[in-house]
Each structure stands twice: as C-alpha cells, then as structure tokens.
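Assemble and predict.
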Amino acid sequence: DGGITQSPKYLFRKEGQNVTLSCEQNLNHDAMYWYRQDPGQGLRLIYYSQIVNDFQKGDIAEGYSVSREKKESFPLTVTSAQKNPTAFYLCASQEGTPVYNEQFFGPGTRLTVL
Amino acid sequence: RKEVEQDPGPFNVPEGATVAFNCTYSNSASQSFFWYRQDCRKEPKLLMSVYSSGNEDGRFTAQLNRASQYISLLIRDSKLSDSATYLCVVTTNAGKSTFGDGTTLTVKP
C-alpha cells in the first residue's frame, strides 16, 4: 500500500534531549512537509522540501532541523533549543506542482517532553 | 491578524441541519484553496478542493470569492458522521500552504 508512515506514534523525552521523528513515503512525491499542531489550533509549518537535498524554513523553524537526503525520507529533529516541544507533529507529502495538489498526511507523532 | 481565519465554533447542530463555515485569507497571492477534515487525534484528510466556479460533492458545496478573499463550505443534511474539525487551507503561488485553526462541528441526534 502506498502512503506515509511516521514513527513512533507516541514519544516521550526528557527536557534538554534532542529527538528525531521519522517520516517515510512511498508515493514518489517530490514535496514533503512538517507541521506542528497544538491543542485547539491549526497546523503550523515547520519546514518543507520541494526536492531532494533542498529545504526551506516554514513559519516556526526555530529549534528544529531537517534533512532530505532521499526522496522518500524527511526526518525532523527537535532540538533542545525548541522551548515548548510538546505537540502533535504531522508529516505530509505532495505530488508535482504544490500549488494545486492536495497534501497527504501521515498518522502523526505525539511528542511529550517531560 | 492571522493569514487565514476561521470561526472556531463550536457549531452544534441537529441531524439533518444545514451548516455553513467561512474562512477568510489575507494574502492576495493565494492561488489554491482546500477544505480538510480532521477527526479527533487523527491526521487531516482532504475533503474537497475549492474552485472559483464553486464545486459540489454530494452534500458538500465549496465556494470561493476572490474579490472578498474568503472561501466557504456548506454541508447539507448533516449526519452524525460529519462531526469533526474542518480546516481551510490556502496555498500561495510559491507553494506555501497556510492552515486555519479549524472549525469544530458536532452533529447531534
């Protein structure tokens, strides 16, 4: 089955530790995105990548880093510099021209920093 | 002011009711528009794209008004299964998407 996988579904970390969230897609999509969602709010864009080895900051990139070494993978690292990392993290991918095509989302990772 | 604004609701309606959501956007370079549905603690899924001419999919109708910079979603004959949060999404011609905070709908028997 084609789709987007994110792992793990739930993640707990101690304050001050870096943590990397996985996102893999087998849809052969060029564009990939990372969003953060807090309770009662919409999605906020962290980083996005429209092609391998290239990515851009979104609206809330501070305290996060990404890489795009392979088309199918777009891991997100939440660093200790992120002041309030507890949130629901969603990865998405999109085919071709990003303007007109829908984004497909993975099931998300709920990160809790203790 | 947020780039994309939605009435957060909640909208509580009885089964069979007609309900309408609006979403306004501030970036005049916005190129494409979508409505997504998000169930509690799940990922968003595309409900429908929004075209200038308006489009309909069964009980759902989406409209775009570029002059006033808003999009709307109309749900007719509401079902219990329509209960969810509805997110509007606006994408610029540079490919950057901005989500609204969502409107919560609860359909009651």
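The longest strand of chain A covers residues 43-51.
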